[in-house]
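fwd from M.: "can u put these together and see what the complex looks like"

so here's what she sent:
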Amino acid sequence: MGTIVFQGLVGLSVAMYLWLISAGLTIIFGVLGVINFAHGSLFMLGAYFAFTFYGLLGWNFWLAIVLSLGGTAAVGFVMERFFLRYLYGVDEAYQLLLTFGFILILDDAVKMIWGGVFRIPPIPAFLEGNWSVVGRPFPVYNVFIIVAGIVVGIVLWLGFERTWWGRTIRATASDREMANAIGVNVPRVFSGVFMVGAMLAALGGALGSPVRVASPGLGAAMIIQAFVITVIGGLGNLPGAFVGSLIVGILSAYGTLLFPVFELALIYMVMAIVLLVRPQGLFAR
Amino acid sequence: MATATAAPQKGERISRPAGVALGLLVLALFLLPVVGGTYAQYVAIQVMILSLFALGFNVLFGYTGLLSFGQAGFYAVGAYGCAKLLMLKPSLLFGVAGGTLLAGAAALVLGILCIRHTRIYFSMLTLAFGMMIYSVALKWRDFTGGDDGLVGVPRAPLEIPGLLSINLATMGRYYYFVLVVFLLAVAVAYRLVHSPLGLTLQGIRDSERRMAFTGVPVRRYRLIAFMIAGSYAGLAGALLPALENTVTPPIAHWSTSADPVLATLLGGIQTFAGPMVGAFLLFIIKDIIVRFTEYWLIWLGIIVVVLVMGFRGGVASLVVERWRAFQRYSRGG
């Protein structure tokens, strides 16, 4: 019984990284109608920035996170403003191909700058140590991640539902021509949303770097899990992304315990079942 | 008979100069071992393998409008399947045919799931399922050898029981085997895309709804296209183990799926020969870049971005356009 509860908590903390990356992916899709294949690479960039500012230069932890979000948002801005923007009119296959090109560029750029080895910043002192959960040591840092993920979820929900910006973005998502007609600066909304999505991915990467390790293959590993989540939850659906993350995170935590060899296969099996039963995703409208 | 309606369309009929050029190219391919050394043969085999890989991919992308990022999975099924069979019974045809069939079967099973969606969803699904095959290749140590892969795969002789047995141990002989398989597979693909099947696939790409109205079972045709692409990826992969004598998990990784995508994009999606031209160009570009830097993926990425931003037709269609313009000009029109 204790094992079940404990492993569930481990899964919950894994789910929070997945939630941060798939939230960005799904928001960008919902508003811009674009799937950012390079979203995992932005997650990876966030991790490397955090490593550089906090682990290498030894700056303040919170400052390092803010800088990592800013840096990744800047990369996202360049991707949207100077490249993607010119492809909104053409076949969406080309948008996929473009962001696919960005994966190749970012993955190799990271190798050039930081080398091919793993980079791990330390866990900040005030988040070190363990709490006792069902008689076992549970890292405080994981508790911090779980809280952070939930806080981000609440902030996103309030932001979309209760603010002027949120209403503008929702209006643009549901009808960009109409939004444009009533005076919304649609291109600016697109840039802004893409940057917010990039920052969410970077936050996942930055918070995850002390435990999940910054490595050149991180982006690919993350984007594939994010895809599985969006297929399960329904594309462009924020609550779906949250529930999908919980399912994948918790399943993979139990999976590593029960069948370590086929942990990943388990997740794909869930995806296949969802596809057969409800191809539009569990939460699609 | 179905063949009666399968006459080539006007634009696709092979003109005399093109036919002569094609004949010369095939002749050159047959003469290559006489002129070039082992390395040239090795590279030529690699180009032919990638050509088959990309050709199948383009049946799915260029002709049917489905962009798959998971073809490496079927490539790996072909390679691992062939390697396993060769280690079981050293007969090349047995291994290559078996690997191809296994990949086709894998494409049937995963295709049923993947074609439930089109467009963006389809691309995401193929990537995910492709990586599922990668994780199996990496983790199922007892069967696939895990990280180390399968080593010591023999370059088995070409055997037809009671009829013939040809030793293919040298690179030159294996080259001829690959060349014959390659030419046959290209001919089959050419017939396929210029048959009613090929036209139906293009119809589905251009207007799914109209095709459905005319009574075409759209999903079944998409599944067929998926299986053709998977089988060609499998055939390409099945030619690999006898060449390299080993099979390792990276061939199943998504970065291998990028190869046919890049080749097709480089050569052009609208022409039949595009993916093959692209495969050739990709090898030359790789060869040049790795002389200067180990970071060649970043350059490939930049090439992809430039192609997508500026040259969505690819190199082959650029050549075709120039050629047509030249013909119009020389006719005085």
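replying to her w this: Residues 2-32 of chain A form the longest helix (31 residues).
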